[in-house]
Predict the structure of UDP-3-O-acylglucosamine N-acyltransferase.
Amino acid sequence: MKFTAEQIAGILEGSVEGNPEIEVSKLSKIEEGKQGSLTFLANPKYTSYIYKTKASVAIVNKDFQPEHKIDVTLIRVDDAYKAFSKLLEYYNLVKLNKTGVEEPVFVSENATYGNNIYLGAFAYLGNNVKIGDNVKIYPNVYIGDNCVIGDNCVIFQGAKIYSDSILGDTVYVHSGAIIGADGFGFAPNDSGEYSRIPQTGNVVIEDNVDVGAGTTIDRATLGSTIIRKGVKLDNQIQIAHNVEIGEHTAIAAQTGIAGSTKIGKNCLIGGQVGIVGHITIGDRVKIQAQSGIGRNLKDDETVQGSPALSYSDFNKSYVHFKNLPGLVQQINNLEKQKSNDK
């Protein structure tokens, strides 16, 4: 699909400097721009590329003043980075704008879905499934019995949503994600083996949540595992049974959260963080990457390390830790000197 510079400027509420009729059909980094592509300049350290890029159109800030001749058509906006992000979102909507029902699919007789739906080939909708308007379900998606999917959701290829799961509006579930699998519930019996504890709850995901590729969210033993509105989950995260994650919390890849832990609002959790079960993490908490959390955290704490310390204490301790080899050598030298003095 092609767009003119003038059309793009209209979407971004910007002004064209150059040829308004020039067309672009793809996006590119400024240093890799080619004819027919659209790029942007937001970071000053990339300014040199604006003079040699082969891109046809570039988005720049209104206050950008070129020091040399520029061949590329410019679209001037208040904030080039935000404008390009808006354009990416628009481009993604156009790219994902599929509708209709492909064949073969399996839709149970009592499953229902709304208007403007897309069902990709080999999708499966179980008994009593309810799906809203403008939902896109890509090929090989499984949606189990009694699931509810709100409006404007996108379920990408190969995602699996187990029975009784509830998704709000504008939820994105990426490929390979599994929502509603059994929690890790086993109890040792008299013979030393493990007996399975039935997991009879479900998963509830509120509005505007993103679930990354390969992420797993376990159903509750009783009640619900709850992901509150606006939560952003990276790829390959494990969320155990009965966990609750508060509104607008963001969690990076390979984090694992054990059962029944409650995480507050607006938290930022780095990659490869491990969080034990049955603890409470307050609002606006920041957890640095690769930290191990084994205790409750209060509102606004920032922690790092394993076991995690306050961020400032960790940094102070690290100064001493990295100096340990030198300190050990000093002690050894002092002991040798003491022995020689005897």
Remarks:
- The CA atoms of residues 173 and 211 lie 5 Å apart.
- The chain has two domains: 3-95, 100-314.
